[in-house]
Amino acid sequence: MPKKAPLNLSRRERQILEILYRLGSGTAADVTAQMADAPTYTTVRGLLRILENKGHIKHEQDGVRYVYSPVWPKSSAGTSVLSHVIKTFFNGSPSDAMAALLGSSSHVSDEELQRLTRLVERAKKAR
Question: Which of 11, 49, 116, 125 has its Cα between 20 and 30 A from that of 62?
Fold first, then answer.
């Protein structure tokens, strides 16, 4: 499995990848139907080909149709992208990134704060 996550994607490429994560897999017609302000079917097919060439999605043939799906599980892609963001924008500091996330949120529920506390405690024990 490739090690790189879906970075440096165009807006439309990200949109298509999000749709494929939501659907699990889909044809060009499925993706087009799910897109707000969708480009032409031919454009969507071209973008799917680009995403496949970049290694972000794969296809299987189902009769005459290609059925596309993401290469990475959503959680792995998210973790890799977040790691890149932390390195790029927060000088590699997870605590700075967390402070920015908590500072930008209008409300963090008690349940979310309890979960964060448990994760911090687990990280301390793992050191």
Answer: 11
For 11-70, the fitting CATH number among 3.40.50.150, 3.40.50.300, 1.10.10.10, 3.40.50.2300 is: 1.10.10.10
For the chain, which ranges sit under pLDDT 50? 1-3, 5-6
65 bridge partner residues: 62
Q: Provide the β-strand partners of residue 57.
A: 70
What is the distance between the alpha carbons of residues 59 and 98, in angstroms, rounded to a whole number?
36
Q: Which residue has the tokens 């454009």?
A: 43
What residues does each domain of the chain span?
Answer: 11-70, 74-126
One-letter amino acid of 41? Y
pLDDT tens track for 59-87: 999 999 999 999 988 777 777 778 878 88
Q: Which of 5, 32, 4 has its CA nearest to residue 16?
A: 32
Q: Residue written as tokens 């994760």?
A: 119
